[in-house]
Amino acid sequence: LYNTKIALINVYAPNSSDATFFAQLQALLLEIPDLPIIMGGDFNQVLDPVLDGSRPEKPQKSPPDRSALRDLASNYGLVDIWRLIHPQSLEFTFRSSSHGTRSRIDMFLISKGMVNSVQSCSIGVRALSDHSPVDLESGVSRKGRWRFNSSLLNSETIRAEIKAIIQEYFAQNAGLVPTDTSLWEAGKAYIRGRIIALSSRVKRENNKRVIDIGELEAQSSPLLGDEDFRELREAKFELNTIYHNKAEYALFRLKQKQCESGERAGKLLASLVHQQEARRWISAVELSGGTLLTDPQDI
């Protein structure tokens, strides 16, 4: 990750109080080289029953799997990064319909040395699963090269808007420039700007829809009437469509890259890494006084 080797671990713990799983996970970590760790997934247990559960537990001895999970985090210097950023927030990632409870059992545990590189960690809205997604942003953000999002063309309304933008430009500018080449080159820049604005508007609308669904989801079940439940179901169906379109576009891009690489698809990732490093990565900057900066944040 940005020239730093890390151990990326996905966890799906069993739904039981048996500590065996986390003991086996600790044994597995012993075989991993001394690398920073990002461990995420469904741990099926909370670290703090007071802050991470909607129903306070009666004072009692901690269940074996929770104790084992805490030992795992302590022994390997792992931090619940969401809780570190949101020390008193009450947000949950799983709702049990049968028990009428909510809990935060999905999380990221990361090495303490990686905390400063984390830009954000947030809990999203449940849509395709009975669990909420947890988003972690880490590293140095960069402005990538703009590419047209062809999934916008799936919407008949947006297709009509883009067509109108193109027609409007040529209707207003045809004959005002000396050559067709100049007209076309200027047109590409103009149309690109309008499409970026259009994409931003669609993204804002989708994000607002996600927030609205999250607010409905955050309400306790007894507080939701029949009309609210109907609205929530319809909104989640709409959200599923949004996520489906995103996944479809990502799959399209993947197939496109594999097609371009032909039978060399297996070497695709390595090739992309080398190209990006050669074109974009700045490994060090020397200041006027001779000081050499190598930290990506300082650069």
Total tally of structural domains: 2
- In the CATH hierarchy, the architecture of the largest domain is 4-Layer Sandwich
Q: How many whole angstroms does the radius of gyration measure?
A: 25 Å
Give the % helix.
40-55%
Round the mean pLDDT to the nearest integer and report it. Answer: 80
Q: Kindly, what is the distance between the CA atoms of the first and last residues, rounded to a whole number of angstroms?
A: 16 Å
Low-confidence stretches: 263-267, 273-278
What's the arrangement of strands in the largest beta sheet? 1-2-6-3
What proportion of the residues form beta strands (DSSP E)? 5-15%
CATH superfamily of the largest domain: Endonuclease/exonuclease/phosphatase
What class would the helix/strand composition place it in? alpha+beta
Query: What is the CATH topology assignment of the largest domain?
Result: Deoxyribonuclease I, Chain A
Organism: Latimeria chalumnae
InterPro entries: Endo/exonu/phosph_ase_sf
Protein name: Endonuclease/exonuclease/phosphatase domain-containing protein
